[in-house]
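User: Show me a protein chain along with its predicted structure.
Assistant: Here is one chain, sequence first, then structure tokens.
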Amino acid sequence: MKKLSTEFNVTEFPFRLYDKNGNEIYHEDSTGFRSHTEYDINNNVTYYENSDGKWYRSEYDSSGKLTYHEDSTGYWYRREYDSDNNKTYYENSNKYWERSEYDSDGNKTYHENSDGYWYRKKYDSNSNKTYHENSDGKWYRLEYDSDGNVTYYKNSKGKIRGTKKQECPDTVVINGTVYTKK
């Protein structure tokens, strides 16, 4: 990386320099604080440093999505994307990671992380979520009408809910008591 000269005859603060795209590349204020920034051809910040010794650098893919970042504290993270620009992988210097999968409509169908947590989802042809389960043993199932309204819900605790659009049964038994529709 090229260092920007800090030898200026500055009389007015704050003093700023810009590149041809209008991005600030140098800054100095009246306290003596200085910084400089570098950019890629898409105007994404690729490097920053200041007179306090802080710095970071970043990398981007061809579509401009951030793929790598590291800073002066030693912290870093990395991201990967699929061809539809969905984030499929993330990891960082704290040894944390997560991975995701998507269906052809871009719905996230699976996610897991380094803490051992995961979830799986299913969708209908209208991208309505029809099933969700996770590593905690919880799940739920959903059904929809043609307008996309939830008409049925059941979960791992046995709770079942319908909506007002469903017809009420003529007879219901609750705790051994029979109730009849009038």
